[in-house]
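Bumping my old thread because nobody answered last time. Still need a sequence for this structure:
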């Protein structure tokens, strides 16, 4: 009886584990000896389709899903490290050519349809790569987890980014109807219809994302976008001060001291204030000084020092 148990249960498990380890090891060996290729050809197709293991992995689907999940996180991280231009725009990652992220995330959620963290990550990162695949992935998450209101929030976020405010409003409304949904969903449903493209709406969305997410990549994205919104408010106010100064004097301001009195009277949204460095220059939210473009008489970011997107 004992020998039969070993033969019928333990032995197949051992064979699957050893086989999987061998495939992974062989894949890593091939990768290590492969000659260097141009960046656009650097990604090899996935050697395995994880979804084919579903139902045949003897209960190890969760383990395999975790493996694909870790690969998806490392994949984007490695892309950013190897990218020659350090100023990668988190809102547009197409320059990294991350064509395998969607298959990696898709395999993760095929193996574990209730892997909510993977759907959350995909909602933030995939729109910067392929908008239609981002929508498909979010819809897949909702189909597999119809009672998870946060997945509706993610899909609503994608629609908002695409300026599809009616679709976003309907998605937030559907999520708001789910038991236990945050009141934020109802608020966003109404806001999308009235001021979907406003800066205030963007700030509310990213603040909520920052408050709720435990994923570091999501939090970094939210923090950076909030700083970008603050900078837009600041630059708008500085441009107004420059315009008024030029109208009053007939020339553009030469330095920050000529704008000091005007900026001191300026009230930024939500009670925020301008920041200055030790040289009395007005700085952006990352601490880099703003520059006065005297030719256009407008303020601009310091491309070499700012941590904000410059496009």
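Sorry it took so long. Here it is:
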């Amino acid at each position: 009886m004992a020998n039969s148990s070993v033969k019928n249960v333990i032995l197949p498990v051992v064979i699957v584990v050893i086989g999987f380890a061998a495939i992974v090891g062989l894949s890593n060996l091939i990768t290590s000896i492969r000659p260097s290729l141009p960046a656009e050809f650097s990604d090899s197709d996935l050697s395995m389709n994880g979804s084919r293991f579903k139902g045949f992995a003897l209960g190890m689907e969760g383990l395999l899903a975790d493996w694909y999940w870790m690969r998806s996180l490392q994949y984007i991280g490695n892309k950013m490290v190897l990218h020659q231009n350090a100023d990668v725009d988190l809102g547009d990652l197409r320059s990294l050519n991350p064509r395998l992220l969607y298959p990696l995330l898709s395999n993760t959620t095929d193996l574990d349809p209730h892997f909510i963290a993977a759907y959350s990550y995909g909602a933030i990162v995939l729109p910067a790569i392929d908008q239609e695949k981002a929508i498909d992935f979010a819809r897949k998450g909702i189909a597999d987890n119809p009672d998870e209101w946060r997945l509706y929030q993610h899909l609503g976020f994608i629609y908002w980014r695409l300026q599809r405010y009616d679709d976003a409003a309907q998605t937030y409304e559907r999520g708001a109807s789910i038991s236990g949904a945050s009141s934020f969903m109802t608020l966003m449903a109404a806001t999308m219809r009235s001021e979907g493209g406003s800066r205030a709406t963007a700030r509310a969305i990213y603040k909520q994302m920052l408050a709720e997410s435990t994923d570091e990549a999501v939090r970094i994205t939210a923090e950076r976008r909030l700083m970008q919104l603050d900078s837009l408010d600041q630059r708008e106010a500085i441009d107004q001060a420059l315009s008024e100064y030029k109208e009053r004097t007939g020339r553009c301001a030469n330095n920050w001291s000529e704008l000091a009195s005007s900026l001191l009277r300026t009230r930024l949204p939500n009670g925020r204030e301008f920041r200055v460095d030790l040289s009395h220059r007005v700085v952006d939210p990352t601490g880099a000084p703003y520059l006065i473009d005297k030719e256009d008489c407008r303020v601009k970011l310091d491309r070499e020092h700012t941590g904000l997107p410059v496009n």
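The longest strand covers residues 291-293. Let me know if any region looks off to you.
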